[in-house]
Amino acid sequence: MGKYKGQSRLVLKPKSTQEVSQIMKHCWERRIGVVPQGGNTGLVEGGGVPVKDEVVLNLGSMNKVRSFDPVSGALVADAGCVLEVLSQHIAPHGYIMPIDLGAKGSCHIGGNVATNAGGLRLLRYGSLHGTVLGLEVVLPDGTIIDQLSTLRKDNTGYDLKQLFIGAEGTLGIITGVSILTPPMPQSTNNLVLALNSFENVLPIFKKTRARLSEILSAFEYFDRNAYELVVKHKLGKPLAEDEIADAPAFVLVETSGGNKEHDEAKLQEFLEEVMSDESLVKTGVLAQATEQFQQLWALRESIPEAVSKEGKAYKYDISVPVSTFESVVAKTRERLQEKGLYQTPGGVREVVGYGHIGDGNLHLNVVAEKYSDEIEAALEPFVYELVESHRGSISAEHGIGLMKAHALHYSKSKESIALMKKIKNVFDERGIMNPGKVLE
Ligand SMILES: Cc1cc2nc3c(=O)[nH]c(=O)nc-3n(C[C@H](O)[C@H](O)[C@H](O)COP(=O)(O)OP(=O)(O)OC[C@H]3O[C@@H](n4cnc5c(N)ncnc54)[C@H](O)[C@@H]3O)c2cc1C
User: Fold this and answer.
1) How much is the ipTM here?
2) Which residue's CA is the nearest one to ligand 1's atom 23?
3) Whose CA, among 19, 280, 349, 405, lies 20 to 30 Å from 69?
4) Where would one find the signal peptide in this protein (predicted)?
């Protein structure tokens, strides 16, 4: 939305942890605010924006791989390494990064950890809270905390690294990351199913988990409106129109395993089973070649780009029970209709829903002709209250940043927020680390 404009007059690009430490010491003594910056791909408004005149500390020059163990898969890298570069570094050894997202060509591993990014592989490999083995962090006063362990098991006291994962740079600067990378799957495949109704998503998800079990690596959902936007903006190859007919919902299933014949047979069997039940699916397309695999993924991965091409987007990245995905989208649309803002001149063009069913993460996007106070007032706090009514999270994977700090209470109790403030104070009593972000 571009709601916040950076006001910084100084960007520093340290080349080593020692330099980061010296900068922080200097800023600590003079009470100068510091905003850490990775690849600047964060999707939460204001997360990495210096709203006053804070110093921007960009990690881009700390971009070396420190070590890689081809037996355990433990990778230790500077925080400024670009995610895709790390993938390329370990690929020849037969490993992949446990995290993958659309911004992989620009985002840093340090930024990924700072935002606890989720992405497309979370269903298979879990969150960064599990895959990060250790961190090196520079505290606001310049102290270097070296916890760059490559151990998988270490029960020696409090697991401090967890506090920095998802802290959005409010507790310290992450300068090094140790992460466990999984072996590269030998065979990957996918299929897209066009469903008869949204109600079929959950039974199919249950069936998918039961039938594909250990080879299931992604289960993604997108509604008809999201699909239509991708097709409209020519970002994905449409499925056969007569076969999908009026399907209101789609799912993409991906498998990754170690035995091509075995995995393909399993997927084929699964497809035949769901296709034989006409009440469940209208049609299904199984990728037959690499090109088609990418085409099917494009239908899901291109949605954010299609949304941007369609208009100005209000983006909500929420966790709610999967069974409520469709009703959350429908209620938001109804709300805009009631306010006379849906498909009216200058109003909202479309409301779309898509996301990671496997993780209970819905991306609710409201696409408008232009941003307006009226639309914002219709959406907020309405969406947050809706999420709260389902005991959900107002930010599933993008974080809180500046824009949602005031809304934290919809997902965290008064007591939890008070404790978070105490923790912030332990690390940063002078309030210089990414001020105003996450906590008001
Ligand atoms: C096309 C696209 C697709 C995306 N898909 C996903 C997705 O599927 N899942 C998902 O979770 N996110 C997704 N994102 C959001 C974004 O890519 C992630 O949040 C990413 O982890 C941010 O990394 P970055 O290096 O760009 O961080 P930045 O944007 O530079 O910073 C993000 C926050 O982290 C802090 N920070 C950055 N580096 C450090 C550091 N070294 N130490 C301490 N704090 C730091 C910043 O101050 C800021 O608060 C997507 C973004 C785009 C553009």
Assistant:
1) 0.99
2) 111
3) 19
4) none
